[in-house]
Hints:
Strand content of chain B: 15-25%
Largest sheet of chain A: 6 strands, antiparallel, barrel
Strand content of chain A: 25-35%
Helix content of chain B: 40-55%
Shape of chain A: globular
Order of helices and strands of chain A: EEEEHHEEEHHHHH
Strand order of the largest sheet of chain B: 1-7-8-9-6-5-2-3-4
Order of helices and strands of chain B: HHEEEEHHEHEHHHEHEEHHHHH
Shape of chain B: globular
Mean pLDDT of chain A: 87
Number of domains of chain B: 2
Number of strands of chain B: 9
Mean pLDDT of chain B: 92
Distance between the termini of chain B: 18 Å
Low-confidence stretches of chain A: 1-5
Largest sheet of chain B: 9 strands, mixed
Radius of gyration of chain A: 19 Å
Oligomer: heterodimer
Number of helices of chain B: 14
Structural class of chain A: alpha+beta
Low-confidence stretches of chain B: none
Radius of gyration of chain B: 24 Å
Amino acid sequence: xxxxxxxxxxxxxxRADIRGFVIASRIPEPxxxxxxxxxxxxxxxxxxxxxxxxxxxxxxDDPFLRNLAVTVTPGDPRSEEIIKDQxxxxxxxxEIEVASVGYRxxxxxxxxxxxxxxxxxxxxxxxxxxNDAIRKVTASPDFLRTLLDNLDVPTDELIPAALLxxxxxxxxxxxxxxxxxxxxxxxxxxxxxxLRLERILTRIDQD
Amino acid sequence: MLQIExxxxxIISLGHQAAQDRQIHRKALxxxxxxxxxxxxxxxxxxHVAPLLDDNSADxxxxxxxxxxxxxxxxxxxxxxxxxxADLVLIGVDGxxxxxxxxxxxxxYLLQIGALIFRFDGNAPTVHTRxxxxxxxxDLYDDRGYLIDGETLGMERMVKEMEVLxxxxxxxxxxxTNPIFALSDGPLLWPYVExxxxxxxxFTAYLGxxxxxxxxGAIPVGYIDRPGGQPLLDLLWAGQLASEELATRIxxxxxxxxxxxxxxxxxxxxxAWTPWYTRATATNRRHAEDGQEIWFCYANLGTQRSPAIAxxxxxxxxxxxxxxxxxxxxxxxxxxxVLDGYPYVLARAHEEALVTTQDKTALEQAIQRELFSxxxxxxxxxxxxxxxxxxxx
Lengths: 207, 393
């Protein structure tokens, strides 16, 4: 699990709406964010920042790599430099999809949960949230609200991933209470759908 | 809307003509193969075409056929030898540009050169890029006050590519004593006609950079994928003429519907190289004055099922180094084997050099921000804005 200590720029907004945005990124493999990563993008001419969760990462079509895949053999000394070039030098064109969970106005410490007033503009830079920001945004389980209502993203997987990531950033003694509080919120919100609730809670418990 | 029915007859006629051309083409190809097999030895051919190249001779014409440089028969092809490539260095370079645009928010042009240093040592190759942003009036306008054209930008790009190769070759030379090949995607022979001061300045700079590659102990190599032209076919035709016919009938080549590549696709085995040739063009003479006369050969970097013919150009001083050329042939064979006959280093250099639409947008935003910070509100022209809107349809 990534425990980002500092902000990392990962790419630019390609398309966006209130519910989320897609980032086009060409970064080396180790820097590609993982499922459930908290990211931030400026909105309203930089007067606020939307916070979201990575819910999908897709490799774009790359004819160059497809060509190499049939001619290069791992383990063959004649392919060694080419494989290393592809892995270490060549940036991977990826699209990263993000679901909005809230936003924060500049100069204020509190987060507002729900959809932002405006989506981030195209080509705005996106950064991975630092640990402090993740702790703050997840201070209230209300950050789960937009996810629970979002039927377009795999929320049953995303919610456990986000909660476990946030729990890891807290002192050991606080983790259980943090997860219990989130569980209670989910039970209240999903009272009408016990099967879904069980699915989410089981995934949290499995970790 | 195009009324296809009105040109139906022409479309049918086009099809008939293509079928007819194909038949003529096939016959010409068979004839070319016979002439190649029957051609005299290289030194005899050289002596035969000499009057065409003698500036002082009354028979001299502007003949630009291939002059054989390697001894022996010209249909002799060299297969790739299985030589070790360990620690050999191949530097590939390519360039791209943003052309100056009067409709843009600011008048500028950009050159970007990308390179890949491939060392055959088991480690990841090294990537290198350099860029030049030009915005001075002296750079943007020619002597007559016109905005510089694509050809002028092409010349500058070719100079920069060779300068980058010279620079990287020199750095590599400090690291090791291994053979270094400096590979550019395109001809090594300066392809521009000399006209005006700017051309001359660029050509001189290019030759200087070429000499610097040599001084760094590296061998410059030009790689031309699917080349045009027919210098070999012109030589074959010259070989068919009697000496006294040369001056009068040299322009009547019955193989002029063909190109050398088409002949090579028939005769050159995968991995094989032809003998070396040169051409007595004014540009090559200028190269020769600086000790950089260019020789060329054809190579097949593909496979039996998918041949890939390229023209390889090297300076005459390098073509004579048999061991180096054997190593280069093996290295290019390796490079072509992973990418359908195209050298991997050049494909990657191109990728690194490419200025994408996204790059261009980011650059223009940065320029716009900078101009705004000094109180200039720059906008693209109305025409450019309209084009952008229509392009989004």
